[in-house]
Amino acid sequence: VLLKLNDTSRSRLEELSSYLRERKSVIYLLKTIGTYDFEFEVMTRTGEEFYTLLRELRQDFAGNIREYSVVTMSDEPKYEHLAL
Questions:
Q1: What per-residue confidence (pLDDT) applies to 73?
Q2: 8, 36, 58, 66 - which has most CB atoms within 10 Å?
Q3: pTM for the full model?
Q4: How far apart, in whole angstroms, are the C-alpha atoms of residue 29 and residue 38?
Q5: Are the C-beta atoms of 37 and 5 separated by less than 8 Å?
Q6: Is the dihedral of CA 52, 76, 67, 3 positive or negative?
Q7: pLDDT of residue 35
Q8: Which neighbouring-strand residues pair with 65?
Q9: C-alpha torsion sign, points 75, 66, 48, 50
């Protein structure tokens, strides 16, 4: 999930990070540079579980989330290092 935020101050980002760390399905957090301000990865068993998390996040941070985008992956290929 990619987020555009209204307030990217250290305290607001820490509040968001703490909130997401409490969710079992959140597996990765990242402060980004560029179009989006923050990214997090979620691993859920169902789409309903994912959208419940997203709905709660949007309600709890309604004043700070300006926009979001969702990138869905059904599986992740394994990459192996190639020695050159």
A1: 79
A2: 36
A3: 0.82
A4: 8
A5: yes
A6: positive
A7: 94
A8: 5
A9: positive
Dist CA 47 CA 44 (whole Å): 7
How much is the pLDDT for 15? 97
Long-range contacts of 7-15 (CB under 8 A, 24+ apart): 7/64, 8/37, 8/38, 12/64, 13/38
3-state per-residue secondary structure call for the chain:
CEEEECCCCHHHHHHHHHHHHCCCCEEEEEECCCCCCEEEEECCCCHHHHHHHHHHHHHHCCCCEEEEECCCCCCCCCCCCCCC
The token pair at 83 is: 């020695």
pLDDT at 18: 97
